[in-house]
Amino acid sequence: MSCAGKVYFVKASESDSVDEVKKRLSKLCDESRVLDCVKGGDTTAVKIHFGDEGNTGHVKPEYAGVVCRKLIENGSVPFLADTNTLYRGRRTNSADHIKLAHEHGFTKKACGAEVVVPDDAKRGNVADVEIDGSFFKIAKVASVFLRAGSLVSLAHFKGHMMTGFGGALKNIGMGCASREGKLAQHSEIAPIVDLKKCEGCMECVKSCPADAIYKKSGRIVIDSSKCIGCATCIAACVHGAIGVPWESGGMKIQEKMIEYASAVLLKKKGKAAFINFAMKITKECDCLAKDDPRIAPDVGIFASLDPVSIDRACYDAVVRSCGKDIFKEAHPDRDGSKQLKYAAQMGLGSLDYELIEL
Ligand code: SF4
Ligand code: SF4
C-alpha cells in the first residue's frame, strides 16, 4: 500500500486521559500502517525531542512507548534519539541530555527503547552527507540516524521563532544535525558575545579550533570571517555569554533546514514514517526551558509517509481550528510555508494531501 500524500488523523486532546490518547494513537498506527515501512531486523531511529527542562509541550513518553512497542512487534529494534543543542542548557552535552530525557520519563522501562544522544565530539558520530543544495553541498548529520535501517519521526507540531512553525521537517532537518550542522543552518546569525555576562576567562578563546576568538581592548571579539560554525565556544562558556541571536536575522534558515532534512530523508526513501502531535500547540518550540502556554486548541495526531503532506495537513488543521493563521499572528516576520514549498521543490514530498480521519 502506498501512503505517499495520504495523511491519517485521529482527534485527540490533552483533556483526554493519557490512556485514551494511547488507544487512539495505537489505532492510528494500526490502521494507517505507516510503520509497515520498518522491516523486521532493522534498527529504527525514533527521532524525538525530549523537551528542555521545565518544558511540558514535548511528545509524552507514554506515546513514544506506544510507537516503540509497535516497532518491536514489527520485528525492529527501536531507539529514541535526539542531538545536542547549540545553546547552553541541559541538552548541550550527551550525559546531561540523556539524564534529562530519563527525568522526563523516556526510559527503556517506560518506552521499550534506549535513549541515544550522540556526542558530536566523538569521531564517527557525525557524518558528512553530500547533498545538492543551494546553500550546502555537505550536511553534517548525526550518523546514528543514517546507520539505522529505518526512521520514525515523532514530532510536536507547534510555533517557532525562526521558522514560523515546526513539525516533521524541522524535527529531521534541525533535529538530526550535529551542533556544527545546526550552527551552519543559523550561519546568518553567527555566535555573538554578551559583554555584560563575559568574565574574561578566555575559555572560549582556548576552545575555538579556528582561532576566530580574540581579546581586544579587554573585550572578547568573534571574527566571523574565520568562524567555521562549530559551536564549541557556546558550550565552552560556562557564564552563558556566547549565544546565537535567535530573534533576529536567519531569513534563509527554513531553506537551509530543508536541505539538511534532505540529507537524511533522501537516504531513507521508503524507510521513514512521520507522526505529528498537534496537541498543546505552543508559540515556541520545546527547546524553551519553561511551560509555554498553548496558542491554539488541540487538534489531534497525524501519521503519514510524506513529511511535507503531514506538516501541511497539520498547519491547515490548526489554522482551520483557530479561524486564522495563528502562527503568522505569533511570528509576523516568519512565513512558515516557505519550508513546505522548498521541501516539495527538493523532492521530499507533496504539498497536496488527502486527509483520512480514522
Ligand atoms: S568563555 Fe565566556 S566568559 Fe569566558 S571570555 Fe569567553 S565569552 Fe567571556
Ligand atoms: S563557532 Fe567554533 S569556530 Fe566559530 S567562534 Fe565559536 S568555537 Fe570558534
Strand order of the largest sheet: 4-3-2-7-14-17-1-18
Report how far the terminal alpha carbons are from each other: 17 Å
Envelope shape: globular
Helix content: 25-40%
* Overall tally of domains: 2
Question: Low-confidence parts, pLDDT < 50 over ≥5 residues?
Answer: none
**Chain-averaged pLDDT:** 92
Bound compounds: iron/sulfur cluster
CATH superfamily of the largest domain: LarA, N-terminal domain
Structural class: alpha/beta
Backbone CA Rg: 20 Å
Beta-strand residue percentage: 15-25%
Could you name the key traits of this structure?
358 residues, alpha/beta, Rossmann fold, Alpha-Beta Plaits, 2 domains, eight-stranded mixed sheet, 13 helices, binds iron/sulfur cluster
Describe this structure in words.
The protein has helices at residues 18-32, 61-73, 94-103, 108-111, 143-147, 168-173, 179-185, 203-207, 232-236, 253-265, 307-322, 326-330, 337-345; strands at residues 6-11, 43-47, 77-81, 114-116, 126-130, 138-142, 150-156, 158-160, 164-166, 192-193, 213-216, 219-222, 242-243, 272-278, 281-282, 294-296, 300-304, 354-357. With 358 residues, the chain is an alpha/beta fold. The protein folds into 2 domains: 6-184 and 251-357, 3-Layer(aba) Sandwich (Rossmann fold); 191-243, Alpha-Beta Plaits, CATH 3.30.70. The strands form 6 sheets. Strands 4-3-2-7-14-17-1-18 form an 8-stranded mixed beta sheet, with helices on both faces. Strands 5-6 form a two-stranded antiparallel sheet. Strand 2 (43-47), helix 2 and strand 3 (77-81) form a beta-alpha-beta unit. The mean pLDDT is 92. One iron/sulfur cluster is lined by residues 193, 198-204, 220, 236-237, 239, 241-242. One iron/sulfur cluster (SF4) binds next to helix 8.
